[in-house]
Amino acid sequence: MASTPTSARTGVIRLSELSPSVSGADMVAALVPPPQFDGATFETYRADPAYPSQQETKETLQAFSGAGAPAPRGGGLFRRAKKVPETKPGVYLDGGFGVGKTHLLASIYHAMPARRKYFGSFIEYTALVGALGYQKTVELFRGSDLLCIDEFELDDPGDTMVMTRLLGELVSGGTKIAATSNTPPNALGEGRFAAQDFLREIQAMSAHFETLRIDGTDYRQRAIDGHAVVLDEAGYEAAMTDAAARGLVSDDAFAALIAHLATVHPSRYIRLLDGLSVIGIRDVTQLLDQAAALRLVAFIDRAYDAQIPIRATGTSLDQVFGEEMLGGGYRKKYLRAISRLVALTHE
Q1: Do residues 37 and 120 make contact, with C-beta atoms less than 8 angstroms apart?
Q2: What's the CATH fold of domain 5-23+221-346?
Q3: CATH of domain 49-216
Q4: Where are the coiled-coil regions (predicted)?
């Protein structure tokens, strides 16, 4: 089994040759906001005046998190929120991609005066259940003050029901829940999440959540061109040689990388990226297999969390998902991935 590249400083590796492992303890230790959101606060969230729901949601979440307020005696760690009734232990952020939901989720995490709090993606939590078992996971989180879940998914009914059962047990014990949406249905339009589908899916939990709709445009597209950067062979070689002299880079053929991702659980993708300063991908082609496309989405999510630039040749990465995929049930995921791919190739 190959090791992860954490010890390397400079040079070139192939992700398709790595088989990372991760323990339950490692998974728990990683349940904190991604590095790019280390300093995320409500003050640094830039609400767009053109979309009042952004400022309204920010204020509601400040109240929910008890930001700046001392914990009331005998009443837990949360002061009464104006828009979130005291009987509602959870908030659910519903909106398009690129409107700052993860920034707001991280702001809750940082602002809440909690002794025990966790922040992770839906995939990370379900992987933890798989590694530790359901009951041990319940015991681990029981008594925690806050659980933040980014990109709540409805892709797998089994995973969804495990998570909703877990959340039900934790809420009954006093844990606050904050979640963002990431589900296949786009019944409410482009880039939108059908919040009611989520609420119906977790019928026993629906009464615990206040759903907050956040409108807006993708902030990643406001200052850059709408297409991913494509390099020719000479440009790619020059960029990768320069990057490898200053840090650790990966260099893989697109087909080899996609094939390898099928052999690694998505919860371990972040370990593939340990220590990397640049991701290099040669000969990108459009994907035809939906399972492969969804694995690429999960990989790009982790690369974006780690803010690792991408250099690529071949088909533009914003064209990697075909029209049939973009018109299907996973449309929102693909659009979010495209937005992130464009941003990472401009880094």
Answers
A1: no
A2: Rossmann fold (3.40.50)
A3: 3.40.50.300
A4: none
User: The pTM is what?
Assistant: 0.74
188/231 Cα distance (integer angstroms): 37
Closest CA to 165 of 126, 111, 212, 197: 126
Reported as a pLDDT band with limits 50, 70 and 90, residue 68 is: very low
State both tokens at 54: 């952004």
For 331, the token pair is 């449309």
Give the torsion sign (CA, 295, 249, 32, 336). negative
CA distances from 296 to 8, 254, 285, 336, 340 (A): 25, 10, 13, 12, 12
Task: Report whether pLDDT(120) > 50.
Answer: yes
Q: What is the dihedral of CA 178, 184, 189, 193, to 10 degrees?
A: -10
Structure tokens at 253: 């053929």
Domain range summary for the chain, segments of one domain joined by +: 5-23+221-346, 49-216
pLDDT the model gives residue 86: 52
Tens digit of each residue's pLDDT (9 = 90 or more) over 11-50: 999 999 999 888 888 889 999 998 889 889 999 999 999 9
Amino acid at 69: A
Same fold, 5-23+221-346 and 49-216: yes
